[in-house]
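Q: For a teaching handout, I want to show students what a protein-ligand complex looks like in token form. Below are the inputs, and the small molecule is NAI. Please produce the holo structure.
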Amino acid sequence: MFNLDGKVALITGASQGIGRATALALARAGARVAAAARNTEKLAAVVAEISSGGGEALAVPMDVADAAQVKAGFQQVLNRFGRLDILVNNAGITRDGLAVRMKPEDWETVLRTNLTGALLCIQQALAVMLRQRWGRIINVSSVVAQMGNAGQANYVASKAGLIGLTKAIAVEVASRNITVNAVAPGFIATAMTEPLPEAVKADLLARIPLGRMGDDIEVAAAIVFLASEEAGYITGHVLDVNGGLYMA
Ligand code: NAI
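A: Here is the structure, written as tokens, with NAI included.
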């Protein structure tokens, strides 16, 4: 639908779920793709899938919580492709528990990965995009950033932080033709939601006007749109992909 020929995209957390679907969708739209994550075996499978479809992809082993690994990963992308046009900050984790008993390490690990990791990637990406005077940054937040959710104070804070980060960076870099947006997925069928108890799933489904879970491809499609030339007048926006669960 949208043409990303000539663009280079880096997606974090690209080994599975929404990140994998996004890597495949960006490649189908014509982008050369750097797929970043910690699991090198799964990354190799994503790269092979893109290559077998006629696309070009690179596996970038990277823990987004580690500044040195992030820097090395971006350098690897520049060495291979010589440019970077699109960054998708998708890597994310949960360490659920009620706030009153939340361990400091569970708070810090989630904030470090979901929020600080995004900033570390944005800093590396901007060094290139500011020179190129073109860029698209898309941060994967969550509907719980807008609604709140019991048992996820760390995760909700990180995802709400990502929305603030999106808006702040959007203002900083707009003059260089770089847009910064967020997508806020609702209840999407991936490894992250699979372990939820059946009763919790049933309760969530009952509250979703479209009456079903979302598919990772539906989130990927929203990301491809925000990465496109056609979305060039949209910045600082949060695009909901939630089946109507929350209407901003
Ligand atoms: P997932 O658990 O299948 O995928 C998460 C990805 O992030 C994996 O590839 C994992 O390897 C990677 N990752 C985790 N920590 C990392 C680190 N330190 N460095 C590099 N990569 C790391 O989950 P899913 O559902 O595909 O999630 C993708 C994003 O979407 C996450 O940010 C999640 O919070 C968000 N999201 C998911 C929703 C859902 O219902 N599944 C709803 C709203 C947001």
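A: Two things your students might notice: The pocket of NAI is lined by residues 12-13, 15-19, 37-39, 62-65, 90-93, 113, 117, 140, 142, 185, 187-188, 190-193 (CB under 6 Å). The helical segments are 17-28, 40-52, 67-81, 104-132, 144-147, 153-173, 198-207, 216-227.
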